[in-house]
Design goal:
Layout lengths: L1 H4 L6 H11 L5 H59 L1
């Protein structure tokens, strides 16, 4: 390191050695926290997506049921009139 102190402009290799000496960079705990946060965010997004999809499916099902029921009721309302005309 005494050699590096003699330069006016510090070479990259001296900077790298100084970082290694100080223990600089990202530590294991920081990486662990980052990974944990990414996993938590992904789980949250998956949960929200599934909830949204279920809600859309439920609404679509309700629309289909309403449509089928209205067709069925319309069919039943017209049925007695047709039977009465035949008899």
């Amino acid at each position: 390191m005494a050699i590096c102190a003699g330069f006016n402009v510090t070479p990259a290799s001296c900077i790298e050695q100084e970082i290694k000496k100080r223990g600089g960079g990202i530590g294991f705990f920081t990486i662990f926290i980052i990974i944990l946060l990414v996993v938590a965010v992904n789980i949250g997004l998956i949960y929200l997506y599934r909830r949204h999809t279920k809600r859309e499916m439920r609404e679509e099902m309700q629309l289909q049921i309403s449509s089928i029921m209205s067709q069925y009721l319309a069919l039943n309302e017209n049925k007695p009139a047709i039977q009465g005309a035949n008899h």
